Amino acid sequence: MASAPYPTPSRILVVGGGGRENALGWALARCPGVEAVWIAPGNGGSAELAGCRQLPIAETDAAGLLAACRDQSVELVVVGPEAPLAAGLADQLRAAGIPCFGPGADGAQLEASKQWAKALMVEAGIPTAGFWPASSREQALAVLEAQGRPLVVKADGLAAGKGVTVAESLDEARAAIEAIFAGRFGGGGSEAQDNGASLVLEERTHGPEVSVFALCDGQRMVLLPTAQDHKRIGEGDTGPNTGGMGAYAPAPLLDAQGLEAVRQLVLEPTLAALRARGIDYRGVIYAGLMLTESGPSVIEFNCRFGDPECETLMPLLGPELAQILLACANGSLDQAPALTIHPGCSACVIAAAAGYPGEIRRGDVITSTLESDNTLQLFHAGTQRNADGHCLTSGGRVLAVVGQADSFDAAFERAYGGLAQVSFAGMTFRRDIGHQVRSR
After folding, report:
1. pTM of the predicted structure, to 2 decimals
2. Pairwise CA distance, residues 372 & 50, whole Å
3. Per-residue DSSP letters for 117-138?
């Protein structure tokens, strides 16, 4: 007798207010059997996505989100950002009997504490750069002097992807250490262990970077296509680091064999090490990898989808996505259908506000004639609507335009063609996103 098909959650809540959450909402609303998707708090573009509604509840308001789940009979919550995960939102939802895709506060330490994650990697034999934790300015500067070479400086704790300095000189490394201990990124680690700032110093490794995402149910995992993002603000990969100015998928740097090696060397040992610590990790493990001469090395782990990788990947994922995320939340991936991956390429370009990643302009009116479809999408990020219904800029990264096609050249042509249909004062973007894979 054939087993019954795996259930589809008909009513889904996505928590967060960025481009990543709009992409998740859009992708889940397209799955057959999904009747309604709410995005809380969402942004200026959330209500325009087919099948999505905006809920004005902050991602930090656990009680408000729980009440909304009960009021709307929500069958699955997908938590986008890292901060509510680190604060235990998934734990509170699960305690109330609501399936949640996203790790508990224990698993979120994978991102929330660089020191904790590094210790886990060493324990599990996962390849990563040599490192030195430091809990005081003096200790960090002493390590730097003893090494006598520039090191990577990472704030320990959530810094929204911006607490990392890849120092080119000893002076730059010293300045980054001073900035962290001067409180630029708040205290390190979770509140419970927060006696002020702390950091990790790391050896510099060399090679191209690639992002790998594993959807986990605590025991098993499903791998998504690889993606590569562009962190620097300037063309030619120059200037300060940002949250990400664009991305493309799948990244040709890792073929199927390379991805399988990453599964065996990095992802499965990570999930096993989490289990060994008593952590039932139900959510996405995002491994930022450097492909060094001696093989893949983990730069960092994140406990959520990357942004803008999420906007880039979602259009490539098939109609089973809602079932798969529910299966992860329920610990039953072995019963879920296989995830279809669409062949072809996806290209994402970010339009940022003037001044990003420094002091930015806010409140500029956004105009757009872009109509989203199956091969071209507009996902709002830092936007909000005013009382008159006009859409205004409200953050550093304002919009993500994503295109799909059979080749990277055609996909980027589509994305940049879409970008030409949106405008706001001071709009900043890179014209060379995907330069590694484009021939024109």
Report:
1. 0.90
2. 10
3. HHHHHHHHT--B--EEEESSHH
